From TrEMBL:
This is Winged helix-turn-helix transcriptional regulator. InterPro entries: ArsR-like_HTH, HTH_ArsR_DNA-bd_dom, HTH_MetalResp_TranReg, WH-like_DNA-bd_sf, WH_DNA-bd_sf. PROSITE patterns: HTH_ARSR_2 (PS50987). The keyword Transcription applies. It comes from Pyxidicoccus parkwayensis.
Length: 108
């Protein structure tokens, strides 16, 4: 899943946070960082390839927004993993309830 790799970079995570408050041009995004415009473009390219941002042209400007498809994929993955742990914790809870007399031994 490319999304996790894309989000492993703090600059890209900050770009996603900025876009969560609304769409912005590449130039507007660049004003929030002390890095070059080409570097911002490279980060945006990685986010776009990971399907975390979308871009559209408005005259000479490129406007970026979050891509819900990529975030839906992330959410689905987290949901599956959470289900894995919920099942195991339910089994543990049932076993502990079945043996309430079992007490933790104290060390001398």
């Amino acid at each position: 899943m490319q999304a996790f790799t894309a989000l492993s970079d703090p600059t890209r995570r900050r770009i996603v946070e900025l876009l969560a408050s609304g769409e912005r041009s590449a130039g507007e995004l660049g004003e929030s960082f002390d890095i070059s415009a080409p570097a911002i473009s490279q980060h945006l390219k990685v986010l776009k390839e990971a399907r975390l941002v979308q871009v559209r042209a408005e005259a000479q400007r490129r406007i970026y927004t979050l891509d819900t498809a990529g975030f839906d994929e992330l959410e689905g993955w987290v949901h599956r993993i959470r289900g894995f742990w919920n099942e195991r914790l339910d089994v543990l809870e049932q076993r502990l309830a079945a043996h309430p007399e079992t007490k933790k031994r104290r060390r001398p």
